[in-house]
């Protein structure tokens, strides 16, 4: 019985996998130098990407460590006999005064913001930096930083905290209109996860300061009826409501 001799083309058409291998070998044979250069570039790019990711990871870790140091300073103890070295008395930092500890904390937070301005860690650092600035009398810069954090959508919870601090600052400085507008916006935002009853209490006090006792009472009643039976701020809310309801003939506005 005779045999049929298949051509190379016919053999390749019978085995597509083999066809691909042969063509790849031919490609390397014909363009070996060019492909070698491309492969080398691809390897360098891969190494560069990996190294870049490693570098970014190390920067993020450094930022987190510095943020941790700043928050440790922020919550540090104060003692009259403290030395220039906050760790002289042990592993927990101690400062001579509140001003000293907030200035030291601000230095750490400021460094994170300057060196890692676009990361999530820097948003938290900017928030704490603003708190330090408020406590050391640098109110103008504090407001700028709080407004920056409040407008940032990458860390919503920290943004809401910044808004609440802004409202507290404005209320404390007598700008009740600005405070009320901020709190009203937070209370109407369904994405806000801050304790609602605490915000209601803050808003009710702002309304009372504006002479709007009736509006404050309505707000507190609504929060009392809709809120949980037991919460951290429930008793405060009830007490505030009871006090306002006993207030004689208010001249409040709707």
Which tags fit this structure?
2 strands, mainly alpha, two-stranded parallel sheet, globular, 254 residues
Quantity of strands, as a count:
2
| Global shape | globular
User: What is the end-to-end distance?
Assistant: 108 Å
> If you average the pLDDT, what whole number results?
79
Q: Which band does the percent of strand residues land in?
A: under 5%
Main β-sheet description: 2 strands, parallel
Poorly predicted ranges:
1-18, 43-56, 249-254
Structural notes for this entry:
With 254 residues, this protein is mainly α. 72% of the residues lie in helices and 2% in strands. The protein has ten helices and two strands; from the N terminus they run H-H-E-E-H-H-H-H-H-H-H-H. The protein has a two-stranded parallel ribbon. The longest helix has 59 residues, at 16-74. The radius of gyration is 32 Å and the shape is globular. Residues 1-18, 43-56 and 249-254 have low confidence and may be disordered.
Topology (SSEs and partners):
Layout: H1 8-14, H2 16-74, E1 77-78, E2 94-95, H3 98-115, H4 120-135, H5 139-150, H6 156-172, H7 176-188, H8 196-209, H9 213-226, H10 234-245
Parallel strand pairs: 1-2
Helix pairs in contact: 1-2, 2-3, 2-4, 3-4, 4-5, 4-6, 5-6, 6-7, 7-8, 8-9, 8-10, 9-10
